[in-house]
């Protein structure tokens, strides 16, 4: 997308113009539309991700949980950068990831047969299912995929609500919607199946932190899954575990003189308005989690 400023003078922003803070919910929706209209290409592809806590990084669940468990940190953001920003850290996460996906577990024989018969991506389907149903996960919870949505309303739901079922509540922190211009990231749409990407992760080049730009997955043939149908997800693979997606994209932006992402803050005071808006759009818990 173009490097733009907020449309409204009442919207505060960071000095690098990557983080915007609207003053009202109406302003929030106005700025969101403004950002979307700035996305590149004849067929633009804005993707959205909601965080209930605006301080969270764009890290995958696997990285977050590895840090918490390996370093006994309740808040994974507390990891010292002198550890995180190293090749040994990256290699450690890769090793654990490949241990989980390939040694500890792998797709079922039925999934591999379906891959032969229907040309689905068996590894992608398995990881997608773990993303949508983490309660069935084992070993270190999570995958290296970060889920995004084509729907701004789905992202707003996750920026507003914490949990589901009886545990669902409106979060008390400032939330955020991240908007990623997928076209601006360049040729990152994957035609290679996910199993092939996992195989490449054992190469010295990858282990040294080279060729680790985030990859976008949305295979043309997928199995039906009710949550995926309603949440319309795209998955972006975190490939360099020293940095979250935003850090990698920010470096790319500096080189290409363009904008890949903007973070739009949903302040705690705006969440009651967000709730009313989501209800008016029928974006309810039963829609987001249809089972």
Radius of gyration: 19 Å
Poorly predicted tracts of residues: none
Q: State the end-to-end distance.
A: 36 Å
Q: Residue share in helices?
A: 25-40%
Order of adjacent strands in the largest pleated sheet? 1-2-10-7-3
- Total domains, how many? 1
Q: How many H/I helical runs? A: 13
Mean pLDDT: 94
Give the ordered list of helices and strands: EEHEHHHHHEHEEEHHEHEHEHH
Walk me through what this model shows.
This protein has 291 residues and is α+β, with helices and mostly antiparallel strands. The protein has one domain (12-288). The chain contains 13 helices and ten strands. The protein has a five-stranded mixed β-sheet, sandwiched between helices. A three-stranded antiparallel β-sheet has the order 4-9-8. Helix 5 crosses helix 6 (122-132) and helix 7 packs across helix 12.
């Amino acid at each position: 997308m173009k490097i733009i400023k907020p449309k409204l003078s009442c919207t505060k922003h960071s000095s690098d113009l990557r983080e915007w803070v609207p003053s009202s919910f109406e302003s929030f929706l106005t700025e969101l539309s403004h950002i979307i209209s700035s996305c590149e290409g004849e067929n633009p592809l804005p993707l959205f991700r909601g965080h209930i806590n605006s301080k969270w990084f764009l890290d995958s669940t696997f990285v977050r949980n590895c840090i918490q468990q390996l370093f006994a940190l309740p808040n994974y953001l507390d990891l010292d950068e002198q550890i995180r920003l190293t090749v040994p850290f990256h290699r450690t996460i890769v090793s654990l990831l490949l241990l989980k996906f390939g040694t500890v577990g792998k797709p079922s024989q039925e999934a591999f047969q379906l891959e032969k018969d229907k040309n689905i991506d068996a590894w992608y389907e398995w990881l997608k299912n773990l993303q949508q149903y983490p309660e069935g996960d084992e070993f270190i919870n999570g995958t290296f995929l970060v889920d995004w949505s084509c729907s701004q309303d789905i992202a707003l739901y996750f920026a507003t609500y914490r949990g589901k079922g009886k545990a669902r509540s409106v979060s008390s922190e400032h939330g955020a919607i991240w908007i990623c211009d997928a076209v601006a990231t360049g040729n990152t749409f994957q035609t290679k199946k996910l199993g092939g990407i996992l195989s490449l992760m054992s190469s010295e080049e990858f282990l040294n932190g080279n060729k680790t730009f985030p990859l976008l997955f949305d295979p043309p043939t997928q199995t039906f899954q009710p949550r995926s149908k309603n949440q319309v997800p795209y998955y972006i693979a975190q490939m360099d575990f020293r940095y979250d997606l935003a850090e990698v994209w920010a470096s790319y932006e500096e080189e290409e003189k363009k904008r890949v992402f903007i973070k739009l803050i949903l302040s705690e005071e705006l969440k009651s308005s967000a709730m009313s808006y989501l209800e008016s759009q029928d974006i309810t818990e039963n829609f987001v989690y249809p089972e």
